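_Per-residue structure_
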Amino acid sequence: MEDGDAGLLYVTAPDGATIAAEVIVPARPAVATLLLVPGLGYGPWSWAPQRAEFAVGYQLVLLHNRGTGPFDAPTGPYSIDLG
């Protein structure tokens, strides 16, 4: 990804589910990377009020919780440990 770009990163969880995270690279050099994890059942949109300010100087990684983004949703109840 180039400066100012955003993209999705996909990983496979131990149970075989695909998990996604949105990665945002700032237009100027990042001082650090911030991992933003929404509450259970929420997606990256829950960080909307802070996102623009954080993205000025940080590379952002916004986690998509299961069932909230472009990856596998659970077929039934699951524990926070499974996440």
About this structure: The chain has one helix and four strands. Residues 6-64 form one domain. The chain has one domain: 6-64.
